[in-house]
Every structure is written in C-alpha cells, then in structure tokens.
C-alpha cells in the first residue's frame, strides 16, 4: 500500500478536518512520520478520533498501522530521492541509485505470485474486450500502446 497514492485518490472526498491532516502529510512529512496521534491531531486542529478515521479512510487498520505504512512509503521513496553514496561524485550517486533500483527489482521478482499472474494472463487472453486508461504522463502512453 502506498499512502500517498491512496491519499491522492481520496483527496477530493476528504472533509475539511481530514484535508488539514493530509496537508500536514504532504507539507511536513518529517513531522507526520515522527508525531504521536495527539501531536498530529493538535497540529491539524482536530481530535485524535478524527486522525483515526482519517487513517482508516486511507486503508489502515489503526494509527499504528498508518505510521508503519507511512514509514514504509518514506523508506521506499527516499532511497531514490536522497541516495546516500560514499561520495558526491556523480558516478557514485548514479551507481548508488541503480544498485538500489536493481535490489528493489530483485525483491519484487522474489515476491511475485506467479500463479496469480498466470491466472490473470489466462483471463485477459479469454476476454472479449479489454479497456486501458491512463491519466497523463507514462500511464497515458502505456494505455495508448495497449490499445
């Protein structure tokens, strides 16, 4: 689960209170990932139960689960946005990013459910019609290619 993707999907339907919490996540991520439920509620000027409802809206079971998902999202994103190479030499930075991307792909490959992929491929092959949609950038290009 990617908290930020879910947040983008839910944002138009958020209440004003939930929008304040979302704004904190988007504008002061460091605070949000380290804050307690009370600190986050106070900064957003909402009650702790509102924070809990917000977390559930994003698909988390609890505030604790929300914090885990938030930290996981941060870890995955920050590995590529803020690499920590041994030096600031462009070659070392590039190698660090590429190595981390390769490691992520390797872990993805190991976690693939090949039976589920095969089942999906079979269903797609038997489908009478398949629709592909994209919303800007690469997703539109890929949807166009699929058509």
Brief write-up:
The protein is an all-alpha fold.
Key descriptive features of the protein:
single chain, 147 residues, mainly alpha, Arc Repressor Mutant, subunit A, extended
Oligomer: single chain
Structural class determined from secondary elements: mainly alpha
Distance between the termini: 28 Å
CATH class of the domain at 3-79: Mainly Alpha
Please report which band the strand proportion falls in: under 5%, 5-15%, 15-25%, 25-35%, 35-45% or over 45%.
under 5%
How does CATH name the architecture of the domain at 3-79? Orthogonal Bundle
Explain this structure.
This protein has 147 residues and is mainly α. It has a domain at 3-79: Orthogonal Bundle (Arc Repressor Mutant, subunit A), CATH 1.10.10.10. It is built from nine helices and no strands. It has helices spanning 3-10, 16-27, 29-34, 37-44, 48-57, 63-81, 90-111, 114-126, 137-146. Helix 4 (37-44) crosses helix 5 (48-57). The longest helix has 22 residues, at 90-111. The mean pLDDT is 83.
């Amino acid at each position: 689960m990617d908290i930020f993707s879910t947040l983008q999907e839910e944002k138009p339907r958020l209440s004003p209170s939930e929008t304040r919490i979302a704004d904190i996540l988007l504008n002061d991520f460091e605070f949000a990932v380290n804050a307690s439920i009370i600190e986050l509620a106070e900064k957003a000027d909402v009650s702790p139960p509102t924070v809990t409802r917000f977390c559930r809206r994003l698909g988390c079971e609890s505030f604790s689960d929300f914090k885990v998902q938030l930290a996981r999202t941060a870890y995955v994103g920050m590995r590529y946005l803020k690499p920590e190479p041994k030096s600031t030499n462009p070659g070392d930075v590039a190698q660090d990013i590429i190595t981390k991307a390769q490691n992520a792909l390797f872990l993805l490959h190991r976690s693939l459910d090949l039976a589920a992929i095969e089942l999906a491929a079979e269903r797609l092959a038997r489908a009478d019609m398949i629709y592909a949609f994209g919303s800007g950038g690469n997703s539109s290009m890929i949807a166009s290619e699929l058509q």
